[in-house]
Amino acid sequence: MTDTSDANKERNREIAQNEEAKQVAGSIRVSTTAVAVVVIIGGILFTLGWLALR
User: Fold this and answer.
1) Is the model more confident about 47 or about 1?
2) CA dist., res. 13 & res. 20, Å (int)
3) Could you tell me the CA-to-CA distances from 2 to 10, 11, 15, 24, 28 in Å, in that order?
4) Where are the domains of the chain?
5) Is the pTM above the cut of 0.70?
6) Distance separating alpha carbons of residues 47 and 44, to the nearest angstrom
7) pLDDT tops 90 at residue 3
């Protein structure tokens, strides 16, 4: 009984670690996309402002 319980606990730990890794990777992907969007929008606004002042 203890062997099965220990095996389940170890399996659950591995699953939790895998899920955590997936969440971290997803968060990094979302953050990178957000930064890219902000840079693009900032570039567009900067260009429009620069053209308006010329």
Assistant:
1) 47
2) 10
3) 12, 14, 20, 33, 39
4) 1-54
5) no
6) 5
7) no
For every residue of 1-54, DSSP letters joined together read: -HHHHHHHHHHHHHHHHHHHHHHHHHHHHHHHHHHHHHHHHHHHHHHHHHHHH-
Per-residue model confidence as pLDDT tens digits over 8-53: 999 999 999 999 999 999 999 999 999 999 999 999 999 999 999 9
Q: How many residues does the chain have?
A: 54
C-alpha 43 chain-centroid distance: 23
Give the pLDDT of residue 1.
Answer: 56
Q: What is the rounded distance in angstroms from the CA atom of residue 37 to the CA atom of residue 27?
A: 15
Lookup: tokens for 29: 């992907």
